[in-house]
Design a protein that fits this description.
- It is a single chain.
- With 922 residues, this protein is an alpha/beta fold.
- Helix content is 63%, strand content 7%.
- Strands 3-2-1-4-5-7-6 form a seven-stranded mixed β-sheet, sandwiched between helices. The protein has a four-stranded parallel β-sheet with strand order 9-8-10-11, sandwiched between helices.
- Helix 4 packs across helix 5.
- The longest helix has 21 residues.
Length: 922
């Protein structure tokens, strides 16, 4: 609840925290630097404190609202009591609720958010605060006027929270007797005037707030005398609410008469209740506490407060803290409340004791000691340590040691969680209080935290303290601080280890710590004293943990290599090092190569597996061919091919050598999709390099291994077309037709291949036999109830089927080869299409060629790109230019399957060409 209220006040009213009334003028000076500008508010403030009545109250609140965030000053002074009200009030109010004196509405607005089911009203006498409250808290009904004078219909609940004493302050004590309280604040007539705002049976909620002159029992007794019933007190100590219900009629005259009668009958003896207080004080000073208890009875009447206080002192001294706390509570004096806070600490009720002790801490001594104990019980170890140290009492030493142990325990927990900044902050706090408070454990943890944060000056200071205490961690810390490294893991080989050798030897003379062994072993390795280095590093690896042991194994392997130990032993240490401190993939790859060359194939396979786990991307960039060779030897062609296939996918223009290697590796699984893709890339690269003979040999070799492979037959046929070997091309297409028709039973594919043959050999009458066979199969399928596309009667009609008739549309084609262009141009022009064809054989790559193509592109109705391995290098810039001009683009994917592949693509693309032409583009 307090945190929620503070967040609400901080967000809506800029309240940053509690403010002591004694700090009001200093805080005001921070906000208003000019003395002349803050003088009016200071005058109003002093008049307000002097009890200047309603006018002083009105003047103060008007002036405070003129100061930037001035209302935050008022709420800061009332904040602890507002937190108490926010917790105690909402569950007790009912019906229509009126708060008197809400200022700008912070509290009533918060209460309304907690109980939105009630009707909330606010009565404010300062007009400026009234207007601001209406803006700030619109969910509350606001009324302008003073409580005693306002004429409003009666409410179900009346809140008098921290407003009743305003205007009647002046010189007043912290606590008053009931009669003094009634006189000072004119209790009876003012309550009677305010009770007009409360219906009979309605609830009155009274809170005195931060003002002096408290007397909760006076409020209770006064309300009873006025006839209020159901009077009860909520809370304790400074934070008290008095609740009561209004009677039908108030007994104001009877209450006043009783008050006057009590004043006349009052005699000095009542202050002591007739008890021998002087004798009790003397016994208390003499330490005769049991006699004090015997002298003062356990049951003390309300008037004998001094007797209750003395009895509480005696009980406290006898460690009867629960009884002492009760006696102090009945005493109702400032001194008793002070002792009551101490008793609450002894009882373990730290939260209730804390507010009072924080106010008493300025007195020092035992109050700081008890405040420290309260903080210690609440887990606020830093605050507790500060109070113990500043108390200056000898008995605080035991608590100091206990607190330091708990701080060290919390530092260890933060260290386990990796929160080294928190560890460092606590060590620095203890050091700031007093360097003598730094225990060995705190110094060790602080040194480690300072090193890990790179705070080398602080680390050196802690290390020197530990070295003075003859701790090995101190000498190691001095070495690391001198090297300016956080740990041995940060050494890069250029550090002056020789300069810190004395620190390392001193550390090892006291304890063989792994870090000191590692650093000294690295120094001996650099000096070439390998036998000594071997001894030190073996110990460091055995005693160390985590990455420290991993680094020790790494240097141990290097030392063993220098001593020409067996390769298996060297690589074994490298494996242990990698398990504790991971190597990068290229280093693991080189170790695997070394193992394979040394005949340790099992070890090489294991190291290669570790390199794969680390990621082979860096190895691919550094030594791809070496990696592929190693993978092929250890894991087979597929492992090498998969890595190479991934590398080719990331390479825009892979070299021919890599494609050749990928093709060779893929022969063991040549029918896979990846192998087919690599074969196509390799063929494209061969075509691009003009090595047609090698491409033909590759395809013939493939055909020999797989005579029925349609893709190979298609590629071979297109190759022969490119070379102008029409007879061989027709032979390849015919063989493909037989495979598609008789083996694959694919009528649509056979139909396409037959179109290619008809295009190449239009006069060949034997092709009509294939057409008849296709018709016969179609009829058979139709008889079986299956759907099949109809076939034309004449071969020429088959060639031209489904291809639309054009009317002078302009088509631009990029790619393909010269033979394909020369064959198709007459056919397309006969169909009414104007074509500009830039094939790969006759058009070179250059700015002039690109300029020519782009000039034609501006007038084209469509662009087709033959994107097979016979595609054109200018296809990408031409495509980008076409999209910029709005010209539709069609890319023929994969191999075109000769002439019919192009015609099929043109048939699909024709609607886009027609749309462009209909837009009137010339």
């Amino acid at each position: 609840m307090p945190e929620e209220l503070r967040a609400y006040l901080r967000e809506r009213f800029s309240v940053q925290g509690p403010l002591s009334p004694g700090r009001f003028e200093a805080e005001l000076a921070k906000r208003v630097g000019s003395p002349a500008k803050r003088a009016p508010l200071l005058r109003a403030w002093r008049a307000y404190l002097g009890g200047g009545g309603k006018e002083a109250v009105r003047s103060f609140y008007r002036e405070v609202l003129k100061v930037p965030r001035g209302e935050a000053l008022v709420y800061g002074m009332h904040l602890p009591f507002m937190e108490f009200y926010a917790e105690a009030v909402p569950e007790r109010v009912e019906g229509r609720v009126l708060e008197v004196g809400p200022f700008t509405g912070a509290l009533v607005g918060y209460l309304q958010s907690k109980r939105p089911d009630l009707s909330w009203h606010a009565l404010e006498g300062v007009e400026e605060a009234y207007r601001l409250g209406q803006e700030r808290v619109p969910g509350v009904v606001w009324h302008l006027g003073w409580g005693e004078e306002a004429e409003l219909p009666p409410f179900d609940t009346l809140l008098l929270l921290s407003v009743f004493p305003e205007g009647y302050l002046g010189e007043v004590e912290g606590r008053l007797e009931p009669e003094e309280f009634w006189d000072r604040f004119q209790f009876f007539p003012r309550i009677a005037a305010l009770a007009r705002l409360l219906r009979p049976g309605g609830l009155l909620v009274y809170g005195h707030g931060p003002f002096l002159g408290k007397c909760p029992e006076g409020v209770e007794e006064g309300l009873r005398r006025l006839g209020f019933y159901g009077v009860e007190r909520v809370g304790e100590g400074e934070y008290v609410l008095v609740l009561a219900r209004r009677p039908e009629t108030l007994a104001l005259e009877r209450a006043e008469a009783a008050r006057e009668e009590a004043q006349e009958e009052r005699v000095p003896v009542l202050a002591s209740g007739g008890y021998p207080l002087e004798e009790a004080r003397a016994l208390l000073e003499a330490g005769r506490y049991a006699e004090v208890l015997a002298l003062l009875p356990e049951e003390t009447p309300p008037g004998a407060r001094e007797a209750a206080y003395l009895r509480g002192r005696a009980l406290f001294a006898l460690s009867r803290f629960a009884e002492a706390e009760e006696a102090f509570r009945e005493a109702l004096s400032e001194e008793a409340e002070d002792y009551r806070a101490l008793a609450l600490v002894e009882l373990g009720d730290y939260q209730r004791a804390l507010p009072r002790l924080e106010g008493l801490a300025v007195r020092g001594g035992r109050y700081r000691l008890y405040l420290g104990r309260a903080y210690l019980g609440l887990g606020r170890y830093a605050d507790a340590l500060r109070q113990f140290v500043e108390s200056g009492l000898p008995e605080a030493e035991l608590y100091i040691q206990d607190t330091l142990e708990r701080i060290a325990e919390r530092m260890r927990r933060f260290a386990r969680e990796g929160e080294w900044s928190e560890v460092s902050r606590r060590a620095e706090f203890v050091e700031d209080l007093s360097p003598r408070l730094l225990t060995r454990e705190i110094l060790r943890l602080g040194l480690r935290a300072a090193l890990l944060q790179g705070l080398f000056a602080r680390a050196e200071r802690y290390a020197r303290r530990l070295a003075d205490l003859d701790e090995p961690e101190g000498f190691l810390g001095l070495a690391l601080s001198a090297l300016r490294v956080r740990s041995p893991l940060e050494l890069r080989g250029q550090e002056d280890l020789k300069g810190v050798e004395p620190y390392l030897t001193e550390a090892l003379a006291r304890a063989e710590t792994p870090e000191a062994l590692l650093l000294l072993g690295m120094l001996r390795e650099r000096e070439g004293r390998y036998r000594e280095a071997l001894y030190l590093l073996e110990k460091a690896a055995g005693r160390g943990e985590g990455e420290v042991a991993g680094l020790a194994y790494h240097h141990l392997a290097q030392v063993k290599r220098a001593l020409r130990r067996p390769l298996k032993e060297v690589l074994g240490d490298h494996k242990r090092a990698h398990a504790l401190r991971a190597y990068p993939a290229p280093f693991l790859f080189r170790l695997a190569q070394e193992a394979l060359e040394g005949g340790e194939e099992v070890l090489a396979r294991e190291l290669l597996s570790r390199a794969r786990d680390a990621g082979l991307g860096a190895v691919e960039e550094e030594d791809l061919l070496g990696l592929l060779t190693l993978l092929e030897r250890l894991e087979g062609p597929w492992a090498a091919f998969s890595v190479l296939y991934g590398a080719l996918a990331k390479t825009p223009h892979p070299p021919l050598e890599l494609l050749a290697l990928a093709y060779r590796l893929s022969r063991s699984f040549r029918e896979s999709l990846e192998a087919e893709a690599v074969r196509g890339q390799y063929l494209a690269a061969l075509y691009g390099a003009g090595r047609l003979g090698e491409a033909e040999a590759l395809l013939l070799s493939e055909l020999q291994s797989r005579p029925q492979a349609l893709e190979v037959l298609f590629d071979l046929a297109e190759l022969y077309e490119r070379k102008g070997a029409w007879a061989k091309a027709a032979e390849a297409w015919q063989k493909a037709l037989e495979v598609a028709f008789y083996r694959e039973k694919d009528l649509d594919l056979a139909r396409e291949i037959l179109k290619n043959l008809l295009f190449l050999r239009p006069q060949d009458e034997s092709l009509a036999l294939y057409l008849e066979e296709l018709k016969a199969v179609r009829e058979g399928l139709k008889a079986l109830g299956e759907e099949a596309r109809p076939l034309p009667e004449a071969p020429r009609e088959l060639l031209e089927e489904d291809l639309p008739r054009f009317h002078g549309e302009h088509l631009l084609v990029v790619g393909g080869h010269t033979q394909l262009r020369s064959r198709l141009l007459p056919f397309l022009e006969e169909r009414g299409l104007r074509v500009d064809w830039f094939d790969a054989d006759s058009v070179g790559v250059g700015r002039e060629s690109l300029r020519r193509i782009q000039t034609r592109l501006e007038k084209a109705h469509g662009l087709m790109i033959v994107s097979s391995y016979v595609g054109h290098d200018l296809s990408e810039p031409v495509r980008a230019q076409a999209e910029a001009l709005g010209v539709p683009v069609y890319i023929i994917p994969g191999r075109a399957r000769g002439v019919t592949g192009f015609l099929r693509a043109l048939k699909d693309f024709a609607p886009e060409v027609f749309k462009r032409a209909l837009k009137g583009v010339q």
